[in-house]
Design goal:
By secondary structure, the chain is an alpha+beta fold. The chain contains 13 helices and 25 strands. The chain folds into two domains: 355 residues, Kinesin motor domain (Kinesin), CATH 3.40.850; 77 residues, no CATH class. Bound molecules: adenosine-5'-triphosphate. Adenosine-5'-triphosphate (ATP) binds next to α4 and β16.
């Protein structure tokens, strides 16, 4: 197996979403201080600044930030998905890695963006739906295998959300430097609905507790990984396999203990969540530093080790930062906007993951068996399209060649107006095909697969 490399630098895409102001914030007398000015610009006003203060009269009370795309309370889930994630799908099914992660303080809409609700599904459901549709659309030429895993990092420990009884799992780095979770459950899936069911089941296992800032606060970082393997249906002794990995991550909220009034276990969780997020912030700082290349300490937390490729390696990465528009959230909003702004200058190096698999002679039997299944699949497709199959011994302008043992497999061939193909035999152990004289004289038959 050989890995083929072709790489390209790519800037992190950073989106900013301002959620609607909540009833609680309004009841507490908060005012709106975060506004989307245009498709890319967001303005944050400092609620503490006094417009009457003559010493600061000429200073602006507001700071503006430019992102790749900005959303406010008017944005629908579909708009957010289209502008941030939809464009990654084509790459993932053809061997590129991609990451989408939701970042921001607690209660600002990360889970809403990623998971959404039954009526307003989020990025997970929309991405999976389009991913399987893209696979379906190209499945005449390409063969796919899709698998998924779903984990959470809770108190700096990794739990398998598809099989929590496995206990805590460890991170390992393979020979190529790719971070793997040892022993994680990888489920092969065939459609978006199945993945969503597994995801919802896994989500029920996720650590979630009410805090003062959010009734259903996610206390852990949740990571959904979907792996797509693509290979051509045309068999060859050298087979190219493209492996694309898509990470979709709902981070736990960054929070101040005072705001969430956390004590005991919640306080400890907060410390661990903040340790991971602090490490993430440090990595973002180091990676976005335009000066001399800095050492990037991914090893400081499980989250940053897992996100190593997504942040500074081989991945097309989108960060969706979230803030509240309320004046009471000013400090959190300002620090989120600062990190998101820095993250814009992070560059990743994107390359297609190609594996060249050369087959050993002993594997030919399995290739032949694959080919037979493929012929069977095509036959079913032709049948379902209403194509008429010739009876045995009949001639046809569109003939079928019978191959192999029962159940008989039919390989459609393109024949000229007067060309004849008689499919003879069909007995166990192989059946013989007899070609009409004109066909033979042309030196062979063209299989149309
Ligand atoms: N864009 C939005 N439109 C409507 N409601 C929203 C939006 N964003 C967030 N909300 C609502 O705000 C509340 C908090 O959102 P959510 O749970 O997604 O926050 P979070 O950032 O994931 O918080 P935590 O980090 O604590 O898990 C939820 O009730 C959610 O439905």
């Amino acid at each position: 197996m050989k890995e083929v490399k072709e790489s390209r630098d790519q800037q992190l895409t950073v989106a900013l979403r301002i959620r609607p102001i909540s009833m609680v914030e309004l009841e507490e007398g908060a005012t709106l201080i975060a506004h989307k000015v245009d498709e890319q610009v967001v303005v944050l006003m400092d609620p503490m600044e006094d417009p009457e203060d003559i010493l600061r009269a000429n200073r602006s009370r507001e700071k503006s930030y430019v992102f790749d795309v900005a959303f406010d309370f008017t944005a629908t889930q579909e708009m957010v998905y289209r502008a941030t994630t939809k464009g990654l799908i084509e790459g993932v099914i053809s061997g590129y890695n991609a990451t989408v992660f939701a970042y921001g303080p607690t209660g600002c809409g990360k889970t809403y963006t990623m998971l959404g609700t039954d009526h307003e599904p989020g990025i997970y459901a929309r991405t999976l739906h389009d991913l399987f549709r893209a696979i379906e659309e190209t499945s005449d030429d390409m063969e796919y295998e899709v698998s998924m895993s779903y984990l959470e990092i809770y108190n700096e420990m990794i739990r398998d959300l598809l099989n929590p009884s496995l206990g805590f799992l460890e991170l390992r780095e393979d020979a190529k430097g790719v971070i793997q979770v040892a022993g994680i459950t990888e489920v092969s899936t065939i459609n978006a609905k199945e993945v969503m069911q597994l995801l919802l089941k896994g989500n029920k296992q996720r650590m979630q507790e009410p805090t003062a800032a959010n009734q259903t606060s996610s206390r852990s970082h949740a990571v959904l990984q979907v792996t797509v393997r693509q290979k051509s249906r045309i068999k060859n002794i050298m087979q190219e396999v493209r492996v694309g990995r898509l990470f979709m991550i709902d981070l736990a909220g960054s929070e101040r203990a005072s705001q969430t009034q956390n004590r005991g276990q919640r306080m400890k969780e907060g410390a661990h969540i903040n340790r991971s997020l602090l490490a993430l912030g440090n990595c973002i700082n180091a990676l976005s530093d335009k000066g001399a290349p800095k050492y990037v300490n991914y090893r400081d937390s499980k989250l940053t080790r897992l996100l190593k490729d997504s942040l500074g390696g081989n991945s097309r990465t989108v960060m969706i930062a979230h803030i509240s528009p309320a004046s009471s959230a000013f400090e959190e909003s300002r620090s989120t906007l600062t990190y998101a702004d820095r993250a814009k200058s992070i560059k990743t190096t994107v390359k297609r993951n190609l594996l060249n698999v050369s087959y050993h002679i002993a594997q030919y039997t399995s290739i032949i068996s694959d080919l037979r299944s493929e012929i069977q699949r095509l036959k079913c497709k032709i049948d379902s399209q209403g194509a008429t199959r010739p009876a045995r011994g009949e001639s046809s302008t569109r003939g079928c060649l019978c191959l192999g043992p029962s159940p008989r497999l039919w390989l459609p061939v393109i024949l000229g107006q007067h060309e004849r193909l008689d499919a003879a035999g069909g007995q166990r152990g192989g059946c013989r095909a007899q070609l009409g004289p004109q066909r033979k004289s042309r030196g062979g038959l063209r299989g149309h697969v």
